[in-house]
Amino acid sequence: MNSHLLPTYARVDLAFEGGEGPWLFGTDGERYLDFTAGVAVNGLGHAHPHLVAALNAQAQKVWHVSNLFRIPEAERLAARLCAATFGDLVFFCNSGAEATECCIKLARRYQHACGRPERYRIITFEGAFHGRTLATLAAGGQKKYLEGFGPVVEGFDQVPFADLGAVKKAIGPQTAAILIEPIQGEGGVRVAPTPFLRGLRELCDEHGLLLVFDEVQTGVGRTGSFFAYQRCGVAPDVMAIAKAIGGGFPLGACVATGEAGKGMTAGAHGSTFGGNPLAMAAGNAVLDIVLAPGFLDKVRRSAILFRQRLAEIKDRHPGVVAEVRGEGLLLGLVASCPNGELVEAMRAEKLLAVAAGDNVVRLLPPLIIEEPDIADAIDRIDRAAGRIERAQLQKRPPNPALASSLPLPQAGECKERVGGG
Description:
The protein has 421 residues and is of the alpha/beta class. The protein has 2 domains: 16-41 and 294-395, Aspartate Aminotransferase, domain 1 (Alpha-Beta Complex); 52-290, Aspartate Aminotransferase, domain 2 (3-Layer(aba) Sandwich). The protein has 15 helices and 17 strands. The protein has helices spanning 37-40, 49-59, 72-83, 96-113, 134-140, 143-146, 164-170, 194-207, 229-232, 277-290, 295-316, 339-348, 371-395, 400-405, 413-419, and strands at residues 16-20, 23-26, 31-34, 89-93, 121-125, 156-159, 175-180, 183-184, 190-191, 210-214, 238-241, 252-256, 321-327, 330-335, 351-352, 354-356, 360-363. The strands form 4 sheets. A 7-stranded mixed β-sheet has the order 4-12-11-10-7-5-6, with helices on both faces. Helix 11 runs parallel beside helix 13 and helix 12 (339-348) crosses helix 13. It starts with 15 loop residues before the first strand and ends with a helix. 46% of the residues are buried.
């Protein structure tokens, strides 16, 4: 079928007409257990009744008014985010890339407001993914995403992930900030060690730099805490959030301390759709659920169980799964085969997962999964791994040395075996 969509995605030939909780209903008549969750977006699953009601109610009032006027629901959501985090100020936008772009601008503007306009460079890390704008692509530094788009945006210094010595060497008179994902999602579900993050905090305090966390994928309960920084006790000065904060509705935000945000005065930044009433209704509805007593406790219990069961898969299928990594419900299977093969085998078992760097398969179930959902997913992964193992055996050439080492049957032995059943 011809499509008029710009061909920037290698889409799977699969479409959905509905969903409920952790399930998606395909136009092919099949049910799929969704452990992609829109790449960590659908944190509360599909068609969550509280989110549906909130959006329906707001849709009958007002959709958009622009930031020329006060938006009470935006003020409410900002206050709730600040009360639950280190933040004092919030800027709303529409995506993770925009949220991270705002963080970059805020860090540079902060140094300018402090009388240090020469400080504009930001230290980032190999394997990072911060978005698809020209600035966030430059921050990520991955050549496959930068190729063909002209000169790379200036001002980013990349160092190896989790290498504190390299960070120290990279700090110079033009350094403004350090930008890091507490867990690299796209980069292969690589967890930044807590001592390393503490070291970054100390370096930023020592040199007058801002510490910026990209929690677009790790935030809003994904790791079992509201935000990943709360697990390690290292608070940033600025944080980018998106994905799960809208429960599937486009919503991003930059959260900052009052000190870090002091340069962002009227006219310094803007977004036409940022903070619109529909997005704010979705965001507040998400917080109603995620911040309710006991919700994150349940996420942590689910995460422990899921990781334990995935360890069983690794033990049973070492030729398919080499390692289980990650935190909370942001988990990765390091594949012993090409990760695309494992994703396809899972999809054949009606389980949806997503590939990542470092030959990893990401498992990002909705935070609302129950124990039976985990057991179901494990069965499907087990069958998928079995599929791959059988295919590997079929591809394996016969081993003449092994055949020649087998003892030849003695006279009459074959007849006896047949006769004996």
